[in-house]
Amino acid sequence: MSREILKITGEDREHFLQGLVTNDVTRLKDGLVYTAMLTPQGKYIADFFLVPDGEAILLDVDAALAKSLAQRLGMYKLRSKVAIAPAGLHLHRGLGARPDGAFDDPRHEGLGWRAYRSEAQDDDTTDWAALRVALGVPETGAELGPDTFILEMGFERLHGVDFKKGCYVGQEVTARMKHKTELRKGLARITADAPLSTGDEILADGKPAGTVLSVAGTSALAYLRFDRAEKGLEAGGQALGFEKL
Length: 245
Known about the structure:
This protein is α+β, with helices and mostly antiparallel strands. It has helices spanning 13-18, 63-77, 128-135, 171-180, and strands at residues 3-9, 33-38, 44-53, 56-62, 83-86, 90-94, 103-104, 113-117, 185-191, 201-204, 207-216, 219-225, 233-235, 238-239, 241-244. The chain is globular. It starts with a strand and ends with a strand.
């Protein structure tokens, strides 16, 4: 997946971001912060990493979302002393021992480390898609889209939202989903005896119950209606096992 690295500078950079994103920006003192930006209705716009970088904050986002995210951040800038520009850096990722200057991926310890360097990475052989499926980690364009509510996609489990930090755009809807409702839909891991296909409809006793999303062999991530998932699930003509994430 292609990533774009932006650099946010200016004396108001931390305060500016704190009022917009789902996680607590003050945690940058401890390393990477995984977070998201939402619409006022609580729906997904983008997920990204914030990275401490001296007198700046780097923003690591899917390249397909970078331009629109930078524009949206600019809409909120108003009189804040903040500047947003391309950083000219490349993402490096890996498993195992963390090299100097790298950061642990805050979503899950099994996702290894991330680093930001001037040259492109040419030694990465990890099957990140299969690892995402195994660990239950959603991705932009696969599980995450404009109609997504982040709690349905496991953002609390992935340390991407803070319920004590105070107000941010979309906070009211997100907090209500956390405290006043039981999630009836969300991310699940499904398994079958033969390979699955992205986009397959999942049925429960013949009724629509969800959709197959990211696939890794006979396992996949799926968006599932939990109120129907206790019944016999099938997709592509084969029975499914499932695990709520």
